[in-house]
Design goal:
The chain is of the alpha+beta class and 282 residues long. The strands form five sheets. A five-stranded mixed sheet has the order 4-3-5-15-6. It is globular and about 65 Å long. The model has no long low-confidence stretch (mean pLDDT 85).
């Protein structure tokens, strides 16, 4: 039984798509389909059900798939002790791999100079065990009993704009009518509290972008405002080129650092998480 084939099938189920699994692994969807068929043939049972919406686990194979996941965990547990580990694979939302996580590498490598950090920016919620990641940074709640989760200290977004534009936004009504740069990921619209009163508005959209960083040029030009993570704003707030729309307090979004309970390299993972935590606290 090939462990790569098992990982492939579990990843396809996790993502709900053969093509998405192929993109994640850098192989054609036909290769994913062949691996699924090979494993089904070897086990003598159907593992997935295909439909127009993608793939899902076959009802009769759910127990088998849980056992296969345990097989992957057991194989991972047999590798060399952590002193010989030289790679740490981390997946996080695309924005974090651009503007936050690289800043954790210099200090981390002072303690672990032989460990190579591999960062993959993806907004997909991929399985750590299925896709061979050591650590994931994810928004939302923790609901996988096979993972250890540490909540990071800051998960909220803030509204930011140029000082001139922020000065003009004096009420929820003005907020609702002022253009926004919409970032894919958070739900459309804005909800939270304006001076302690709840609000929920859908402002006119000036542009849609797929990273918070891409929203910055329009904000700096005073064309719109946006919801941004605090760690991305430090430099701009310090220089006065951007300011927070402080009357609005947005809902908190929990962010967790997650890694498998049976991971052979927990000391190095915890050290990297500490470096990431320090960046959130700046």
């Amino acid at each position: 039984m090939n462990i790569t084939t098992i990982r492939t099938v579990l990843l396809a189920i996790e993502l709900g798509s053969l093509s998405a699994a192929g993109a994640q692994l850098g192989v054609p969807a036909s290769t994913i389909s062949r691996r699924v068929k090979d494993l089904e043939t070897e086990l003598g049972r159907r593992l997935i059900v295909r439909s127009g919406r993608g793939v899902r686990p076959a009802e009769e194979a759910k127990d088998t798939l849980l056992k296969l996941r345990d097989v992957v965990l057991a194989v991972d547990d047999c590798y060399a002790p952590e002193s010989s580990i030289t790679r740490l694979r981390v997946t996080a939302p695309l924005e974090m791999t651009i503007s936050l996580l690289p800043k954790a590498i210099p200090n981390f490598q002072k303690s672990f100079p032989d460990v190579v950090i591999e960062l993959l920016g993806s907004d997909r919620i991929t399985g750590l065990i299925e896709s061979d990641f050591d650590l994931a940074i994810r928004t939302g709640s923790l609901n996988d009993p096979n993972l250890i989760g540490k909540q990071l200290p800051e998960g909220g977004l803030v509204l930011a704009a140029s000082p001139l534009l922020a000065k003009r936004i004096t009420s929820v009504q003005v907020l609702a009518s002022t253009p926004i740069i919409e970032v894919t990921g958070p739900p459309p619209g804005i909800s939270g509290h304006w001076q302690e009163e709840p609000f929920n508005v859908r402002p006119p959209v000036l542009a849609r972008v797929n990273t918070f960083t891409a929203a910055l040029p329009c904000l700096l030009a005073g064309l719109a405002y946006a919801q941004l993570p605090p760690y991305l704003l430090q430099e701009f707030l310090g220089s006065g080129s951007l300011t927070k729309i402080s009357q609005a307090k947005l809902a908190h979004i929990p962010i967790h650092a997650l890694y498998p309970k049976r991971h052979r390299n927990q000391a190095i993972i915890r050290a990297f998480i500490l470096e990431v935590e320090a960046l959130f606290k700046i």
